Amino acid sequence: MRKLQPYIEVYALGQQISMSADKARRVIDQIRGRSYEETLMILELMPYRACYPIFKLVYSAAANASHNMGLNQANLVISKAEVNEGTTLKKLKPRARGRSYPIRRRTCHITIVLQDTSVYEYEGKFFGLKKCKNKYKDMTYHHMYNSGGLWDKK
């Protein structure tokens, strides 16, 4: 087995997106670890408002991978997706009897990292899956990026 290239990671970063970080995390948790094409289908069908900016970021990260690195979009997997809280815009809304009510417009920063799964090649074939046993003693397949080590041939 020879290593074609080290793990290539391409990312896209969206800052100051006007939505709560918790609402964005609800969508991000569904797409973490999935392939690029599967992610696009999930984001198109989910009914949340947070899906559209996340869809744009995933699409932008894949465009960065294909244009800047020359990677195939079919081999991309979302290796890391995280949402951090951004700044909060604070306003006051006038209420009855001269009182005021604070309004907080929350923002978030979303980071999408894509990784190429066609890293290893063995005599003209590339392997993206690793065979291993789980606690129920049946054979399962885990993606190579989840195993954390070299691909061992059995």
Which features does this protein show?
154 residues; 3-stranded antiparallel beta sheet; alpha+beta; 4 helices; single chain; elongated; 8 strands; Ribosomal Protein L22, Chain A; disordered C terminus
Mean pLDDT: 82
Shape: elongated
Strand content: 35-45%
**Top CATH class:** Alpha Beta
Distance between the termini: 13 Å
- Low-confidence residue ranges: 120-133, 135-154
Q: Work out the helix count.
A: 4
Count of distinct strands: 8
Subcellular location: Plastid, Chloroplast
Function: This protein binds specifically to 23S rRNA.
Protein name: Large ribosomal subunit protein uL22c
Family: Belongs to the universal ribosomal protein uL22 family.
Describe the overall structure:
With 154 residues, the protein is an alpha+beta fold. It has four helices and eight strands. Strand 7 and strand 8 form a beta hairpin.
Question: Nutshell version of this structure?
Answer:
With 154 residues, this protein is an alpha+beta fold. It is built from 4 helices and 8 strands, in the order E-E-H-H-H-E-E-E-E-E-E-H. A hairpin with a 5-residue loop joins strand 7 and strand 8 (139-143).
